[in-house]
Amino acid sequence: MIAPSRIADDLLPVGDGQEEAAQILTLRLGRGVFGIPVRHVREVLDVAPITPVANAPASLLGIIDVRHEGVPVIDLKQRLRIAGDDAAGSRDRRIVVLEIEAEGAPTVIAIIADAVLEVVEHDPAALDRPPSLGERWDDSFIHGIGRRMGEFMTLLDVSAIFGRAPFGQPAA
């Protein structure tokens, strides 16, 4: 076990004049903390009514209207196979609108976060590789593992999550 004094957070609140490339939006999905590079984040919205789409994949919850544009809303927890607390009724739940590259084109999607925490700066050199499990698993959607306030935080590569696997299928 590592003594708390040896655990140094490598994520710090963003101050003035810091470069966007080093900024991530931290959010909670289930019991885990995840980060998304700010360059992909268009905006964070309160939860709004989501219109279901007929014959949609299970991870596509439906669409919402964002500034007169229909935007698909994805259940990221399902897509990443994350079990955890269902915060469907939580007042902390938010919709995060992202702009990613999928199949070589800019694409706007939204995800549901159980809570949006803060924007922080990170040092890519301080991130650890995903752990070795002794078996094969696809960690290509993870930039690395960091720490935030004593908790582990997984920095996600959202373009890899949504741009590679067939939509509606887990990102293996």
TrEMBL record:
Top-rank taxon: Bacteria
According to the entry, every stretch annotated as the CheW-like domain falls at 21-167
Task: Show the InterPro entries listed in the entry.
Answer: CheW, CheW-like_dom_sf, CheW-lke_dom
Q: Which SMART domains match?
A: CheW
What SUPFAM superfamilies does the entry give?
A: CheW-like
Pfam families, per database record: CheW (PF01584)
Might you name a Gene Ontology BP term for this protein?
A: signal transduction
Q: Which GO terms describe its cellular component?
A: cytosol
Q: Under which name does UniProt file this protein?
A: Purine-binding chemotaxis protein CheW
* Source organism of the structure: Paracoccus tibetensis
Higher taxonomy: Bacteria, Pseudomonadati, Pseudomonadota, Alphaproteobacteria, Rhodobacterales
